[in-house]
Amino acid sequence: MTINKTDNGARLANTILFPVVGLVLLAIAFSVALIAYTSRSADHAAMESERQLLRGSTQLQLEILAKEQEGAAVWDLADYYTRPLSASTQWLDANLGRWLYTNHGHDQTVVVGETGEPIYNALRGQQLSPDASRELISSIWPLIARTRAKFITRFRPLPSGLFVIERPLNGFTRSIHETGFALHEGELAFVSVTAISPELKQFVANRRPPAVLVSVKKLEGSRLSALETRSGVDGLSASPGADRPGATATFDLRSPLGMPIGYLTWTANKPGTKILSGVGPMLFFLAATIAGLTSVVLFYTRQNTRRLAESEARAQHAALHDSLTGLANRDFFADRFHDELTRWDADKGLIGVIYIDLDHFKDINDTLGHAAGDEVIREAARRLRVLVPDEATLARISGDEFALLLPGYASRTAIEHVLRRIQDRFAIPMYISGTHLHVSLSVGAAIAPEDSLSMGELLRKADIALYSAKGAGRGRWAFFDISMEEHVRTRENLAHALREAIGQDRLTVVYQPQTTIDGATVLSVEALLRWTDPKMGPVSPSVFVPIAEEIGLINELGLYVLRKACQDAAAWPHLGLAVNVSPSQFRHPRFIDDLRETLKACEFEPTRLEIEVTETVFADNDSNILSTLKQVQEMGIRVALDDFGVGYSSLSYLRRFPFDTLKIDRSFIADLEIAPHAHAILSTIIDLGEALGMKVVAEGIETRQQAAILQRTNCDRLQGFYLSRPVPPDTVPATEARLAADREPANAISLSA
């Protein structure tokens, strides 16, 4: 056989040439990439530095605007002349509107009174109708609301019964204010809202919302030039409107409502680009020459190899990972879990298996849609991925359920530390579809070898612990305990029995009267659901209502109560009817249709009905809730805010939502005879409801003394065991008669009691 040396040489040359050319190409490509990356990084860093300087300069300008307001807003006379009984637009015009325009060039000055309505408006020193400022007030209302809320929280009670207003003790300004941006006459403008408060007379008898001073300065001309000089950027300009300008160097400006209203643009300094423009042509020419010589030879091989590798990687990744979040899927998690249990020995420590579930995720899908639900899942996955340790395995195993494997932990305390970090991170709201959502987690945990060394048993017990955490109020974690299994069995029995009770009409509705302030006349009754199971006996609503929400029966249960109450109340046409509606039922997409159909089927007059909702119905700040409330009222049905005072945003809800009735939480009534300031708090709540045009109902009246105290107030109705316990429907007329007889003049509640 003859050996072809030429072919052998060519093969040898190719064997040497390809690696050498590859290394040269790699070196050139690396150099080009490094220079380009360095250039872009330098440009980006320079632009970010300029953006930070501009952000700081705008914030300083806003603080200066608030400082200019301070002399006019923190003033005893300003506080006096903005009160409803002593308001004087003439004084406000001379001492606020004209003074701020003349001395500080404020383009527009508005005073919003204690009731939230404008009482003074001036444009460039000229007084206008207050109503002309409503569009401005609407666009910056969050600033006004936060300023008023901050002012109210600054009241500190004193032992004398008075309140003292505590202002900031240090800082650039001592006023209580909020600042932001707004559109003014089609142009971008600075805006500051400052609470009008007394300067010397800081001790007051009652807390009250403040009037606020609103000042607007357009971002134009000399102000824009000053901002440019202060921030050190070139070519600064303001561009109103939501459309982003073509310039890359932009600083977004948003209204207090969170909507984009314009941008600041400037000519960015690009040091990296200047350097690259000098060496770039030579480097790119050299790279192109070498790449052209080798590309024909290497193109097909490299392309085919890349396609094959990418296809294999995608297939392998897709088989073991979740497509929505990129996390491991159930199969990957099971394989890793099996490996950990197989390799486990006592020296390797504990293995924690964790189930994580998003609370009320179905409500998010129902109210915001599945696209928003997917974004919540992705954001939850991002947060969990950052928090879990490197050695852990995180997987998405179903719609809103995640699993976490924590191997090699020394103690349960160490595992609890991981869970605490996760819970703390989810205390921060998510910004989804223009809405801040407070998404909490329920977490269940099982530990090997304490609970088992079987994967199936550990997963089952982690799931049981998860349901225990949900049953304990959600937003928490629980480790498996043997007692939980009995609880799960009991819960399953209750759920089954509840389904049967609804289907077989074994639930009952009782009615508790709401009376006039003297307790003599029944005006309305509240429908309350009761369940007595043949085997388990009486079951508390606090037990079976959460179960109904968990198993998806709450809407059916709520309609059962509404239908039964309307049928019973037909016998008392002179009485109103109050029915509680759970948050899950209220947010149901068919709530309005079900309500309308039930009233029509029962031939019940809508004006007699009042639905009671608690503040938890507004937990997600959903704009659809306001629409549903308005539809309810358009039907002629009244709406009551139940348990008022126990939530952190009660005042905000009263302003934003159209309630007809305010029900004071029973905890305030219970404190009347023991808490020193309970009377003042109660009177404040009643006065607030009266000022907002709402009927006020005090529930939980259990003693004669409580009833007597409430008689001295402007409360509209009383409800509680002292007047009457909940009674069956057939005894409602007798209860009316008894109350009327008990409250005859000879038996009436003594005001001195």
Describe the structure.
- The protein is α+β, with helices and mostly antiparallel strands and 753 residues long.
- Helix content is 48%, strand content 21%.
- It has 23 helices and 28 strands.
- The strands form six sheets. Strands 20, 21, 22, 23, 24, 25, 26, 27 and 28 form a nine-stranded mixed beta sheet that branches. The chain has a six-stranded antiparallel beta sheet with strand order 3-2-1-9-7-6, sandwiched between helices.
- Helix 12 links the parallel strand 18 (441-448) and strand 19.
- It is flat.
The quaternary state of the protein chains shown equals: single chain
Q: How many extended strands?
A: 28
Report the span from N to C terminus: 127 Å
Unreliable residue runs: 1-10, 746-753
The biggest sheet amounts to: 9 strands, mixed
Average of per-residue pLDDT values: 84
Query: Structural class from helices and strands?
Result: alpha+beta
- How much beta, percentage-wise? 15-25%
Quick synopsis:
This protein has 23 helices and 28 strands. It has 753 residues and is α+β, with helices and mostly antiparallel strands.
Layout of helices and strands:
Layout lengths: L4 H69 L2 H6 L7 H16 L3 E5 L5 E6 L2 E3 L5 H6 L1 H13 L1 E3 L5 E3 L11 E8 L2 E9 L7 E2 L7 E7 L2 H11 L2 E7 L9 E5 L5 E8 L3 H50 L9 H14 L6 E9 L2 H8 L1 H18 L5 E4 L4 E9 L2 H14 L4 E3 L2 E3 L3 E8 L6 H17 L5 E3 L2 H22 L3 E9 L6 E12 L3 E3 L1 H10 L3 H16 L6 E5 L2 H4 L4 H12 L6 E5 L9 H12 L3 E7 L5 H7 L4 E4 L1 H5 L7 H14 L3 E5 L4 H8 L5 E3 L12 H11 L11
Helix pairs in contact: 1-3, 1-6, 1-7, 9-10, 12-13, 15-17
